[in-house]
Amino acid sequence: MKVTCLTFNPFQENTYLLHDETKECVVVDPGCYEQHEREQLKKFIEDNSLQVVRLLNTHCHIDHVLGNKFVADTYGVGLEIHPDDEQVLRAVPSYAGNYGFPQYAEQLPASYLKEGEVVKFGKTALQVLFTPGHAPGHVVFYNEPEQTVIGGDVLFQGSIGRTDLPGGDFNTLISSIKTKLFTLPDEVTVYPGHGPETTVGYEKKYNPFLR
């Protein structure tokens, strides 16, 4: 599995394209809002002859869902989220304008992800891990053979997701990290929703929030 990161919108959100030798592709957390951002995403997909087969959200805060409708409409895929985050998704139109996104277009889920489910595309399988705390329905996607996690806003290099937004809870987030991510091998690479990638081992050793 190849992991391609494109960073979009004023929140500097990491949108991930996951693809393998079959050319099937999954889009995770499309943050593309402006037309030039959408064109950048589309161009990468076209240049690499990828076929988008799934659209996933780790969670549904505004910076991670701005491009959901564009991807769903352009590639004919349904949005997949954890059911506990649907309330977060449905709240976005009420505040999108205040955050500077007056043209936000809502895309509601077509199906739901659950803990332990395996998301398959091409020759690749991603395990869904339920990791609430930053958002009530937050999930991450773990590829065991490649030792990679698409981690959303749970764990960052030297930091953790904020917990002061509706549905957030600090103790729940710490528990999610320790029981779900820190039980994975130290060499697992975590691709977060913002900033550079890190590893489980590095964060166990150096993350000031988790010592």
From TrEMBL:
Residues 12-194 form the Metallo-beta-lactamase domain. GO terms for molecular function: hydrolase activity; metal ion binding. Keywords: Hydrolase, Metal-binding, Zinc. Its cofactor is Zn(2+). Coiled coil: none annotated. InterPro entries: MBL_Glyoxalase_II (IPR051453), Metallo-B-lactamas (IPR001279), RibonucZ/Hydroxyglut_hydro (IPR036866). PANTHER family: HYDROXYACYLGLUTATHIONE HYDROLASE GLOC. This is Glyoxylase, beta-lactamase superfamily II.
